[in-house]
Each structure stands twice: as structure tokens, then as C-alpha cells.
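Quick one from the shared queue. A colleague (R.T.) flagged SH2 domain-containing protein as missing a structural entry in our internal table.

Convert sequence to C-alpha cells.
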Amino acid sequence: TIFSFKKCWYHGAISRTDAESLLRLCKEASYLVRNSETSKNDFSLSLKSSQGFMHMKLSRTKDNKYVLGQNSCLFDSVPEIIHFYSSRKLPIKGAEHMSLLYPVAIRTL
């Protein structure tokens, strides 16, 4: 299921605006994952870059694999994508020089 990953960087159903307010306090290359606001099976990766904030779609394919943006290879799960791009550059225009370095942990009250 979609909630099978319990990761500190997964924030669930927060909005793009909420994601940006969390990232605003963080350093460049900080990121979090949230539910996509437009499509219920997908997720969004929100990232702080030198230019501001970027929101990239993590889409589920027909065969239940995941892709980041249009140009990534296929992954079996969202955590695999995050792990892969924590040590490699993102395949996203405007973030080609960046990796996912600093997970923004969900604050549990």
C-alpha cells in the first residue's frame, strides 16, 4: 500500500505551501515527500534548491513501479528513489547539480 513506508521524510497529505514553509527554514538540498495534491496514487518530492523550491512528481507506472519526473529509471518503491538520489544527481531540469542530502523529518508532537 501507499503508506507502507514509514520514513521520517514522508509527510503525508501536506500541501505544497506547507512543504515550502518547512523547507524555508532548511538548507539547500533539503527535501521531503508528500502526497500529490493532483493525483491520489502519486507523490511529490519537494526540494529546496538555490533557486527556491522545486516540486517533482513521483509517479506510479502501470506495473506498480515509480519514476521521478520524466527521465528517471524505474524503481520498486519511493524509498528506493530517495536512497538512489541521495548519492547521485537528480534527473530534473534545474536540479541537475543536486542530490537529496538533507531529509526534513516530520515533527511528531
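The chain has a mean pLDDT of 90.
The domain at 16-103 is CATH 3.30.505.10 (SHC Adaptor Protein).
Added to the table.
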